[in-house]
Amino acid sequence: MYVCLCKAVSDKAIKQHIANGACTMRELKAGLGVGSQCGKCVCQASAILHNELVKQ
Ligand code: FES
What residue's CA is closest to ligand 1, atom 3? Predict the structure, then answer.
């Protein structure tokens, strides 16, 4: 499922990036571009980030 439509970033891609060491929204933005355009995806992306970090 796409989280960020502007940059075509899926939840899978976000989870993969977190598994590879990203632990902040800034890193997700720098690595994937998520949230770098309209910003509508930031809430959902940060919810995924928090969920994934809790699992680690
Ligand atoms: Fe992610 Fe627009 S949907 S920046």
Answer: 4
